[in-house]
Amino acid sequence: MKKILNSPDTIVDDMLTGYVSAHSTTVKFGSHPRVIVRARSKNAGKVGLIIGNGSGHEPIAMGWVGEGLLDANAVGEIFAAPAPHIIVEGIKSADFGAGTILLVSSHSGDIINSEAAIEDAKELGIDVRSLLMYDDISSAPKGQEAERRGAPGTTFIYKILGAATEHGYDIDRSIALGAKVRDWTRTLGVAVAPGISPLTGKPMFSIPKNEIYIGIGVHGEPGIRQRAIGSASDVVVEVMENIFADFDYKTCEEVTVLVNGSGGTTLMELFIIYGEVAKFLKNHGIRIIMPMVGELVTTQETAGFSISLLRMDEEIKEMWSRPSYAPYFHL
Amino acid sequence: MKKILNSPDTIVDDMLTGYVSAHSTTVKFGSHPRVIVRARSKNAGKVGLIIGNGSGHEPIAMGWVGEGLLDANAVGEIFAAPAPHIIVEGIKSADFGAGTILLVSSHSGDIINSEAAIEDAKELGIDVRSLLMYDDISSAPKGQEAERRGAPGTTFIYKILGAATEHGYDIDRSIALGAKVRDWTRTLGVAVAPGISPLTGKPMFSIPKNEIYIGIGVHGEPGIRQRAIGSASDVVVEVMENIFADFDYKTCEEVTVLVNGSGGTTLMELFIIYGEVAKFLKNHGIRIIMPMVGELVTTQETAGFSISLLRMDEEIKEMWSRPSYAPYFHL
């Protein structure tokens, strides 16, 4: 496998060691070597915010542990959720006496392990609640939103609940805000060429030379349609029309946008894609507030991207605009 | 070519349109559509800092136009320096009455076009001086440092002169500081697999399946040695030993480090690589101050990385530590 690694058995530990060492002013290890927490916690009375997730998607989620963002991240093996006892350690580290929210991206392994962790944490007397996150419109039809997968648009929730919990929201208000953000977010991904799985050393999917997939998941889950690669403009219009057919953004005055790169698509292309998204939204009279363009949720060096939209109201906009700081967050 | 683009003729313009649109609170177009400047200039009396460079290496350099960083970036075609008249527009936009520094990464096209631009700008009465930047130890032997290419370690100069000029340094003091940073920086790159040139649609170089190149340039210029891929630890030790043989970091108390990804290497790998660099430096009793790990200077989706070291003294450390803000700067 053509990756710069040490032993396959130590990928995650080596990565975390390097990450914490590089960003020691912002993050540190928690009570377990697979838990990353904020280096400086002055959080008495704050609602805690944590996520458990498989690794291989860097910089998410550990890159967003920081001020006004996540309090903790429980890190699993590559593309596999962390075990319940690791998530419990994460929950404990994000318990500041005001309740803790465990974000769960909707994938079966994440759900199963999170549910077990929540039971165990409750037995320890921690007021922990989960918020299930889903946004990928290609994974279940309109009307069955709760069956959908988590995709890069779930990062909107990290940012907005990170700001809200820092700002003194209690747990009920935070959960309600997080659910609103989820319900107002839609994401659709496009795959261009597969990355190599560090688990198998093999491409994560296959796709003909001049074709792309519309609607692929963040672990290379199959898309819904194959098409000729075409121009950036054509591809973006198809993605945006699908998103607009799924949620009534047409009547929104303001949205924010994430154009996320899957790992092997250049920033040059992502800017071109963003330009087309901006043109499409302008044509619909919709204003974009502080968009994000970059590689946040990767699938190794997969070439591809996704577009996520979030409807904005005053509350969301306020939390979106508040300053946040983590090693790989930039707005 | 499997990239998400519109016409090949509009790549750079489309990219700049998307970039400026996404980051309109920080950057805007200058007096020419290929010049990017800071959105808010309150710079009367500040020494201006500008670079002209070929595109295709995003986020550098336009992604580092911002507060405490670059005042302007003149953007060329892909892998080609901007024409003199574009650089002149950039110089004019970074002229705040205290002189302007044009950073020049040492590549023949950059040098030729910059020299012509400087002549023209001087005729307009602007006090502009150039600072030639070079750091790639694979491109000329020790003792012939001024013959070397510019490589990712040149970004140390952007940051430190960005902070110094913001902090009130005059042009002579700024040039002297920039030269010191250059003279104390060494970089060595490693290539794993080629990216696709958007100009030709073809891989930018070729390399056998289980081999890597040590010492490759940021446009895919040939390396100096081919070797089996090996472990991250092995590869990093070879790179670090080469760097240590070239500059006497052994006696330094403090350095900063950049582990730069070339575009197609995962952040997972970059963290593992950084961990090995940190181990190597710790074994030599050298402390690392605020390192950077990420994709700053890319060669499209080329897989590979480089390691850059900068010796720190109190002046450099102070400027390195000052807050800076640009869309794709994070420390």
Can you describe this structure?
Chain A is an alpha/beta fold and 331 residues long. Chain A folds into two domains: 11-183, Dihydroxyacetone kinase, domain 1 (Rossmann fold), CATH 3.40.50; 186-318, Dihydroxyacetone kinase, domain 2 (Hypothetical Protein Tm841, Chain: A,domain 3). In chain A, strands 7, 8, 9, 10, 11, 12 and 13 form a seven-stranded mixed β-sheet that branches. Chain A is 31% helix and 22% strand. The first copy, chain A, starts with 10 loop residues before the first helix and ends in a 10-residue tail after the last helix. The interface between A and B is large, with 63 and 63 residues.
List the helices and strands and how they pair.
The structure is a homodimer of 331-residue chains.
Chain A: H1 11-22, E1 27-29, E2 35-38, E3 48-55, E4 72-78, H2 84-93, E5 100-105, H3 108-123, E6 128-133, H4 155-166, H5 171-183, E7 185-193, E8 211-214, E9 225-228, H6 232-246, E10 254-261, H7 267-283, E11 287-288, E12 292-294, E13 303-311, H8 314-321
Parallel strand pairs in A: 3-4, 3-5, 5-6, 10-11, 10-12
Antiparallel strand pairs in A: 1-2, 2-4, 7-8, 7-13, 8-9, 10-13
Helix pairs in contact in A: 2-3, 4-5, 6-7
